[in-house]
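User: Predict the full complex structure for these chains.
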Amino acid sequence: MISLKINNMPVYAQEGSTVLEAARSIGIKIPTLCHLKGISELGACRVCVVEVKGMNSLVAACEYPVREGMEVFTNTPRVLNSRKTTIELILSDHRKDCLSCERNTNCELQRLSHKYGCDSHRFEGNTRDFVYDDSTDYLIRDNSKCILCRRCVAVCRRQQGVGVIGANDRGFATHIACPFDMKLADTPCVGCGQCINVCPTGALQEKEEITRVQEALANPNKHVVVGYAPSVRAALAEAFDLPLGVNCQGKINTALRYLGFDKVFDVNCSADFTIAEEADELVRRLQDGGKLPMFTSCCPGWVNHVQKNYPELLPNLSSCKSPQQMFGALVKHIYSKIANIDPSRIFVVTVMPCTAKKGEKRRTFTDNLADVDAVITTRELASLCKENGILLNELPDSETDKPFGEYSGAGMIFGATGGVMEAALRTAVTVLDPNARFAPLEFREVRGLQGVKEASYVVNGRELKVAVVNGLLNVNKVCQAVKNGECDYQFIEVMTCPGGCVMGGGQPIRATIVRHKAEIAAARAEVLYSADRTNVVRRSHNNSGLQKIYADYIGSPNGETAHKLLHTSYQALPKYCK
Amino acid sequence: MDIARLKQIREETFKSVGNRATHADNAGMNFDRQVLVCGSTGCASNNSQKIRRRFAELVAEKGLERVHVGQTGCFGLCAAGPVVVVYPDGTFYSHVTLDDVDEIVESHLVNNVEVERLLYVDADGKTKPFNEIESYCRQLRHALRNCGVIDPENIDEYIARDGYFALYKALSEMSRDEVIDVVTDSGLRGRGGAGFLTGRKWKFTKEAQGDKKYVCCNADEGDPGAFMDRSVLEGDPHCVIEAMAIAAYAVGADQGYVYVRAEYPIAVERLDIAIRQARDYGLLGDNIFGTGFRFDLEIRLGAGAFVCGEETALMTSIEGRRGEPRPRPPFPAEKGLFGKPTLLNNVETYANIAQIILHGAESYNTIGTERSKGTKVFALGGKIKNTGLVEIPMGTPLKEIIYDIGGGIPNGKKFKAAQTGGPSGGCIPASLQDIPIDYESLSSIGSMMGSGGLIVLDEDNCMVDIAKFYLQFTVDESCGKCTPCRIGTRRLYEMLCKVTEGKATLEDLDKMEQLCYYIKDNSLCGLGQSAPNPVLSTLRYFREEYIAHVVEHRCPAGVCKALLRYEIDPAKCKGCTLCARNCPAQAISGTVREPHSIDANKCLKCGICASKCKFGAIKKV
Amino acid sequence: MKGSSLPFDGTPEQEARLRAKLDELKNKQGALMPAMQYAQELYGYLPFEVQSIISEELNVPLSEVYGVATFYSQFSLYPKGKYQIGICLGTACYVNGSQAVYEKLQQLLGISSGECTEDKLFSLDATRCVGCCGMAPVMTVNGEVYGKVTPDAVEAILAKYHQRG
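Assistant: Here is the predicted structure of the three-chain assembly.
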């Protein structure tokens, strides 16, 4: 241990830890903007400066290592004035439309500006030439609000291994953009939205679809149906100041009804359909000598990634649509029959923890109808509720509508990394070994937050080797290994976001301080696993609603109707379009 | 290569180079005359290469077998270039053109009569041998000892001047600690700017844990007006290679990188030739001098980013990334290039090492002042007669450099200030011209040694404009990583612009000063931390000039365009219309033979009218 | 999209040479800058097509290649003219009036620093000290140095190259 003094108070800190961490350990919070532990460690913004005795200039606490006997001062007038000036300088090159900004009241820059009593007009002068990029379906970059913390760059490169953005030009002209300042839509961006989640200001946000949803809701000719993904219920409460790990499923159902949706369904249900199809496809590939390993295809960021960066792996991708697209197809082509509504009148909205899902909605059509019409993120649902005066915390619980409100515990755990794999295994083992008396139910080896998880099971005398990968940087390693024929997995689950959908790019944005302190992914995942444990039906194929729909409308998995409604195909796409 | 062979080369080559000094004895020498043509950038850009080839052709044609024609590095007096020196006479020809070569050969080399009209005329109006001219004999050439003497592309000539004997001595007679102790005791401090004690830096790197270590040379000399490092590399590249090998031995490295500005093609080429020659001789590579010591060097080119002169940025650049500095600690000695312990010194620092090793710490620490030992090379530029390169003992008073060595201010103008340390330094006003040039004295008055640029300013220079010039440089060269430098220097620059446009208030001056101190205190790297120095030092010594801009809306030096006006004196104007016809903005009107007038709103203040007027009727006010 | 709007006219020979060089550099530490310097020498500038090859071969994201290309002033996204004009704005030249020469050049050529005239005859760069402070102010055309240049002298210098075509 290292002994030092912070503001004359004795502190003991681990060797190799920073002044920032040492101060935090005794209850002193030093502000940060560019710092994101383990991901972005630049010491660039200078908001965290502190005075160290014996040093001529101030130092950045986020990077400065503790030293035996050092004396640190975090709150001298020199320090406080410096922080204030730093923020004021940032504000001089920042479009200050805070009142109407998406991030108003949830902006790290705004909070600091308020905390340090900044005069936002103390420094005036030229601003950069700002890039505004709304070329994709899912994301908007508004550099007039960018403070060059480069957290987005670090996440894109170092966490996701995508690297489509970077710092361009130099000095005052430095700005974050794609190479050659091309539009994001022309790059191999996968749409994961992880950059949005780490942006301290409103420079990055999803492309909103609230307006279109509201228009549909107000249109008497539209029958508006909504379904929400497993992870939404694990995180929405956070946007209403509830603690981490609160399941607000019942309140979501009520809220969606208050908002005026005609039917409230659950994407957990179409997740069960995905398993029914995917497990069947896996078994067929295993038995018929099809292309292995098979990759899951429910994550749209991953599908984008394969299409743009690993086209040679397209045959390995399951042909199943994602739960979202299956949901749309099922609503428009089966629910429409049950409820006797013209499918073209149905407007399907999904609520997703994900930004890439916004792009995915354009991927598949059935009978010339888009499967899904609008996708809003968990954050957008929260805004929509707030705009409509819905006090989520105070709502009574209610149930989802039938028939697409019924689901198994397997559908529920889709939101956590390893969940799809576990759900698929729950079904596959019973298909592969129909006579087994105790088919295993929980596959704990594939749970947890490690980037790559491997497991091997013996089913009916045959070894089944699987892998679960999350975080695209890890995915790249596995893809490379598959390409080089260096691994013998038969089935691989891939989630673009580290931790899976619960940590998707559409989830409530948590301040850095929360990210550094709490294991957000584990808390959100636990919501899903505990809901699974208490669910009566835990295997997808045992979902009675699903069984009835197969019997009445679809026939068998991978049959003709199933193919039309629930499967898709892929194509290689260019990496960059000049 | 072994020591016997090294000695043999030294002896043999000495016969070819030994009489390259004034009045040296020709006995036993291979040549009776040495015609040395400067091949450094300044002279080379004035055809010196062609001049040398012409000499060689003519000498061959005339069968002058006892005459040697060679190229050397910089003689120092760039203002007199292209420079040709003939030894042993010491004849110093200046401003030589290609057409002059025939005459020099015929008259001087064949008939032994110096070509009078081409001789350099010293300050006292006399012509004299090179080594006796005022600006030369006041210098002490330590780092530059071989510049202007040897052919930088010939390793043997370097060996003839004791080259690589220091490396031999270090490897075979000294322990690693002994090498470091000698360097430490010499008192040598980093010549790149900050002046950190070189021996201590070596010690830290030696003590750092790591199986792989690197030795780097910073030759990314980017200060506007500075060309010391370039001259060393162009004139004596082997002294850097030898020193880096010694450093590598001392700290335990086996790989070195020289990071050179790509704008220095001649330096890069000479260094490249030198490295290959050293490899051929086994002075780089495996098992040097049979001691088992292994070291090799690679050149990495910069690509035009001033910030890469900052040590962490330089290493980031070698790693192939944007040259953005990173926070220290960790210091390069612990975690540098590719994450390994790394020693980084600049060219001039290395240039002193071999001599220190050969002749001991005392040979060096007896020169200079109490805390600034040895010599320092300066690049003199700006409003000074003898533009060029000088090397002086630490502690030499500024005025001696300007008047005795630099020859004073041209055109009878008044000396106003000297700027040292480039964009990181400050201005020394004429009132402080007695100040000794050393690290402590310079920083005590708000300037800094920097790498050695010394720009002289006269009464025609506006100090606000100069501060603005340097700040614009920093703004352009800021890497853009940290807030204080990226936005702070920009805002500071904008405030300076307001001053030069007469739009600032006295409160703005205070705000500027506050911002300066903030930037110094908060920036990530040395570039940002020192960026406000030119502003602070001019505010300190020339505040009245700022106030004149702010309060009187007047630029005393007549530089700041926005505050200038051109007026036609109707009493003197003859109405010749010449000014009106030459005005690019059609701002002058008037009828023939009547006094003209200037429309201030249209006037671009280009000054063409004033320069064209034959009657002196147009005045800048 | 930033970068030259002139169509890319690289030849297969150039590409083969670039790829050979990249192959040689691949396993070297910090190979990106040397690779880009080589490519710039080969093509004269670093268009999208060239940076893409470097990115792919060295396994460095294109965003990083481009970030490096726009960080260092010597890398150019635009082709250079047949005659490359440099005007020194170093201190010595500046205090001796190089700014006025620079302005005159911009006016006559209709381009600013970093750009190339449409006929690809001239490109212009404001440079830092070129080391000829004794002759300040200095401009260079393809390395040939013109010393003590005045704004008035610029026209005649350009005319000389115009005639050569």
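Chain B has five domains: 13-132, 155-365, 375-461, 464-551, 565-620.
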